[in-house]
Write a structure and sequence with these properties.
Order of helices and strands: EEEEEEEEEEEEHEEEEHEEEEEEEEEE
Strand content: 35-45%
Number of strands: 26
Number of helices: 2
Structural class: mainly beta
Shape: globular
């Protein structure tokens, strides 16, 4: 990875009688260095990595397997979860995401394409099979079931809140907030892009129905961030309506702070106005500060809370500012 920052100025004195400061451009290059490589453990694409709270181990996840690693032992891993059947024709679900508990180093969670969130306790056995807790909405709770039901219930991402009491999950049409002591239903359901629910056949044909959006809770657990199409970032308050931050597409490597639109998230743009090629898939909230970083196919946007406002109740033009765009 090499990042070049092209607009750094350096002041140079000429030393010829009258000293003059000459501003000239000097590129600054930042290069990452590979410290350790953990390889040969996954057959399929690795989609999730999570560091344990003990700061000694981490997990890596692909669609069928979860491996446990020690940070100092790159040649040894422990396959703790393997859902690959003997006959792949009988495969009914895949792993979609996973993470460790923020405080309990023995607890991890992974989500599946069937809409399940499985909690496991590393103290129970070396190979984890049956989950200690299984969070899933029963099929009988859905009023209707159709061809796209399984795709819509698939969980693309899930994150613990900082206190570990709740879990935020994201599926294609909504955010769900779960209490870790209630396995049968979420405590809150927040629609994200309900206007697309009537156009599922079109979304299926252009593969948009399989887009995997991430989610992120705020440090205090009172607000949640996720992405959508048309370069929209959704900020959902726990007790306030959601707002959508729509940023223009960046035009340079490092662009200056630019304006963005802040509008109510519901209802969103119609399907004819939705730009499906501009999607905010990745999302992260700073662990201590009111800063949200989101990214899609158009760049990296960093939003920061301005003084005198709160993240869970943003007012148009006041609550957030688009502090940086890196393309």
């Amino acid at each position: 990875l090499s990042i070049k920052r092209l607009d750094r100025s350096v002041s140079t004195g000429l030393g010829l009688g009258d000293e003059k400061d000459v501003e000239r451009k000097k590129p600054v290059e930042m290069v990452s260095t590979l410290k350790r490589q953990y390889g040969g453990a996954h057959t399929y694409h690795i989609h999730s990595i999570s560091i344990n709270s003990d700061n000694e181990t981490f997990i890596s996840l692909d669609s069928l397997r979860v491996n446990l690693w020690h940070l100092q032992r790159d040649a040894q891993r422990f396959p703790i979860i393997d859902i690959k059947p003997k006959d792949m024709a009988s495969l009914t679900e895949i792993v979609t995401s996973g993470t460790f508990h923020p405080d309990h180093c023995h607890t991890l969670m992974y989500t599946t394409s069937r809409g399940r969130m499985c909690f496991h306790d590393l103290r129970s056995s070396a190979i984890l099979k049956e989950p200690a807790k299984n969070f899933e909405i029963p099929e009988t709770a859905y009023l209707t079931k159709h061809f796209f039901s399984e795709v819509l219930t698939s969980i693309s991402d899930a994150k613990f809140t900082a206190d570990g009491r709740y879990v935020l999950s994201r599926d294609y049409l909504s955010l769900k907030l779960w209490d870790v002591n209630m396995e049968k239903k979420p405590v809150e359901v927040f629609p994200v892009q309900p206007q697309l629910a009537d156009h599922l056949p079109i979304l299926y044909q252009n593969n948009a129905l399989f887009d995997r959006f991430q989610c992120a809770p705020s440090p205090d657990g009172t607000a949640f961030a996720t992405g959508s199409y048309s370069n929209r970032t959704i900020i959902q308050g726990k007790s306030t309506p959601a707002v959508a931050l729509t940023a223009p597409v960046p035009t340079g490597f490092l662009s200056k702070t630019s304006e963005f639109k802040m509008t109510p998230a519901i209802p969103g743009p119609s399907i004819t106005q939705t730009r499906f090629n501009e999607k905010v898939l990745l999302c992260a909230w700073h662990p201590k500060q009111p800063i949200v970083a989101v990214s899609g196919f158009t760049g990296l946007d960093v939003y920061e809370q301005t003084s005198g406002s709160t993240m869970d109740d943003p007012s148009p033009g006041l609550a957030l500012r688009r502090s940086k765009t890196v393309f």
